[in-house]
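REVIEWER CHECKLIST
Item 1: Sequence provided? yes
Item 2: Single chain? yes
Item 3: Sequence as submitted:
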Amino acid sequence: MTATLSHETGSFVPRDERVDRVVAEITARLHACADDLVLPLPQELRLLHELAEFDFGRFLLLNGGLSGYWTSYVFTHDGTDAPTDMEQWLLSRSTMAGIRQRYHRLSALVAPRLHPGARVASIPCGLMDDVLAQPPELLADVTIVGVDIDAESIALAAESAAERGLNDRTEFVRGDAWELELGTPVDLLLSNGLNLYEPDRDRLVELYRRFRDNLAPGGELLVSFIPPLPPPPDNDPVSAVLWQRLGMSADDVRRDRAVFGDLLSVTYLNLTSTDELAAQLREAGLSLTSVHYAEYGVLPIAVARRSDDIDLF
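Item 4: Structure as written out by the authors:
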C-alpha cells in the first residue's frame, strides 16, 4: 500500500541547486498564470524569494508540507525569535499558528488520560511532543508507542525520549498507518494531521478501522480534523469575522493563500464536517463521543471509542 505522506528531503536543506531549480520552476509557473494569482505577480515573486532565505522556507519549497521536525518546530515556536520577517509571519499569523494552538489543546486532552500502566500510541508520531512533553509525573509507568513512515522523525523522537529518561518505556515502529499492527492494544491512540492529506473516503474508513483494531477495550482515539474553511474574506464581512477567529486578518488570509496555494500548491485533500467524520468512524466500528473546539468553535479534535464499548453501557 502506498503511504499517504512522504518527504523528498531531510529537514535541513541548504541553498543549493535543488532550491534554485524549484524557485525557477515556480517563477515560470507564476508568470504563466499571472492573471489568476491571489496577489500581484511582483509581490508573489518577492514572497517566493523570501521563502528561499531560511531553513523552514526551503523545506516547504521542496516538499510542500511539514516533516516531523518542522511540525515540532511549529508547535514550539511562535515566531518571536524567527530569523526573518517571513518566518515570523508563518509562525504567528498564517494557518501554521492554528497548528500550534491545536497541539496545545491536544496535549491538554492527553494529560488527564495518562495513568500508570497505560499504553499510549501516537500515529504519525513525528517527534511525539504530544506525549513526551507531558509532565514526567504523568508518564510514570506509561508505555509509549510511536509509529511514523519517516525515518528521521522516528530517530528524533527516540532521541527526545532518551533525553527525558523514557527510552526504557518507549517503542518506535517505522511503518504505514494503513498497515498498523501494534501487537498489544493501546488505551489511548493519538492521530494529529494524518487524515488531512487523504482524499479517499474508503481509505479514511480503513485508517480508522486500523485504529479501532489496535485499541484496547475501553480505549480512546483522539483525532484532529479540519471542517470546510470559510471563503476568502474579501468583501465578505461574515467570512472576515470567521477568519479573525482563527487569528488572521484579510491581508494575512490573502498572503496565506498566495504562499500555500500559488507558490507551494498545497491542497487540503480532506476537509470534513463533524457529521461526516462521525459517519466514517461509525463505519470503522468507532463511536464519536465528543468534539473539542478552540475558543471560537474552530480547529476541532474528536474523541471516539470502540462502538462495542459504547454498547456495553
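Item 5: Key structural point noted by reviewer: Residues 17-32 form the longest helix (16 residues).
Item 6: Recommendation: ____
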